[in-house]
Specification:
Number of domains of chain A: 2
CATH superfamily of chain B: Acid Proteases
Shape of chain A: elongated
Number of helices of chain A: 3
Order of helices and strands of chain A: EEEHHEEHEE
CATH class of chain B: Mainly Beta
Number of helices of chain B: 2
Number of strands of chain A: 7
Strand content of chain A: 15-25%
Shape of chain B: globular
Oligomer: heterodimer
Distance between the termini of chain B: 38 Å
Largest interface: A-B, 39 and 42 residues
Number of domains of chain B: 1
Helix content of chain A: 25-40%
Chain lengths: ~150, ~140
C-alpha cells in the first residue's frame, strides 16, 4: 500500500497514470495525516460496487416472509453504519425505532438486554463492521423455500 | 451423557437433543428437536418450519455462503437454545432441512467427545476452571 500525502490545500491534484502502483495496489491519500480517499485497482472497485448494490438492494432468499417493520430497522442500520463505524466498530448494536437502543460485545448480550428492556419490538441487531461478515456453511444449499 | 449417532444418515452423524424457545418464554421450551453437529457452520440453523411455528423475531439480514461460495442474503432470528443444560441466546438462520444444524457459535460452548468407531458422542461436564494461586 502506498501513502500519498496532500500538503497544499489549493493545489489541483492529479494522479499520474504512469505510476506503476496504480491498478496494482491501494493508494491512500491523506490530508493533514488523515485518510481522505483511496485509489484502488479497477477490479476491486467493481467488486466493491457489486457488494454495495447487493447491500442496498439485497435479494433476500427467505423461507419465511420478512416483516416490513423489521426491514425498516435494518435499513436504518445501513444508513447509520458510517456513524456507527466511528463510534462502535467491532461491537454489536441494536436498532429500535431507527435509532441505537443498545451496544454490546456480542449478539447474545445485546439481544437479551434489549429484549428485557423493550420486549418483542421490531429491531435489527448487527455487528458493526467495515465489511459485513459472510457466514460460511458446509451445506451447498443453505436455505430453501417452504412450500 | 452418551448419545448414539443418527444411523439413518449415511455415514452416521452425531446429533444432540436441543430445546428451542421464543425469547418471550425462555423458561418453557416449546420444542425439543434434534441438531446435527456441524463444525463447518459459522452460525446455527433451525428448520424453517420451527422458526415459523415459534414466530421467532427477526434480527438481521446476513450473507450466507455454502462451500461452493454461492451466497444469499437471508434473515437471522433470535432463539433461545438449550443444549446440555447450557442456555444460549442465539442468532440463527432458517433452513429447509427438518433438523437443526449446531454451528460453532453454539458448539464452542460445549465439551464433546466424538467416538467415531463406536458411533457415540459424549457431552462432558463443563471444565472446572482452575483459579491460579496468588503468591
Amino acid at each position: 500500500m502506498t501513502a500519498q500525502t496532500l500538503r497544499e490545500v489549493n493545489a489541483p491534484y492529479t494522479v499520474n497514470p504512469d505510476d506503476e502502483a496504480i491498478g496494482r495496489e491501494t493508494i491512500i491519500i491523506r490530508r493533514n495525516g488523515e485518510p481522505v480517499a483511496a485509489v484502488v485497482p479497477y477490479a476491486e472497485y467493481q467488486q466493491w460496487l457489486a457488494v454495495k448494490q447487493r447491500q442496498s438492494r439485497p435479494s433476500i432468499i427467505s423461507a419465511l416472509p420478512i416483516s416490513p417493520d423489521f426491514l425498516r430497522q435494518w435499513e436504518a442500520f445501513q444508513r447509520l453504519r458510517p456513524e456507527l463505524l466511528k463510534k462502535y466498530a467491532g461491537q454489536w448494536v441494536a436498532i429500535v425505532n431507527e435509532q441505537v437502543a443498545d451496544v454490546g460485545p456480542d449478539f447474545s448480550t445485546v439481544a437479551r438486554r434489549t429484549y428485557a428492556k423493550l420486549g418483542n419490538v421490531p429491531m435489527c441487531i448487527s455487528e458493526v463492521l467495515e465489511e459485513p461478515r459472510v457466514y460460511r456453511m458446509t451445506a451447498r444449499k443453505v436455505v430453501g423455500r417452504v412450500d | 451423557m452418551l448419545i448414539d449417532y443418527n444411523r439413518s444418515i449415511v455415514p452416521p452423524a452425531p446429533f444432540v437433543p436441543i430445546a428451542v424457545s421464543h425469547p418471550d418464554n425462555p423458561n418453557a421450551p416449546d420444542t425439543i428437536s434434534a441438531a446435527k453437529l456441524d463444525s463447518g457452520a459459522d452460525i446455527t440453523a433451525l428448520p424453517a418450519s420451527l422458526v415459523k411455528s415459534l414466530a421467532l423475531p427477526e434480527r438481521n439480514l446476513v450473507e450466507v455462503a455454502g462451500y461452493d461460495n454461492q451466497s444469499v442474503t437471508i434473515a437471522t432470528y433470535f432463539a433461545v437454545i438449550e443444549v446440555a443444560h447450557i442456555r444460549v441466546n442465539a442468532e440463527v438462520i432458517a433452513v429447509s432441512e427438518d433438523y437443526a444444524l449446531l454451528g460453532r457459535d453454539v458448539l464452542n460452548l460445549l465439551r464433546l467427545l466424538l467416538d467415531g468407531p463406536a458411533l457415540t458422542l459424549e457431552i462432558l461436564p463443563p471444565a472446572e476452571v482452575e483459579v491460579p494461586s496468588v503468591p
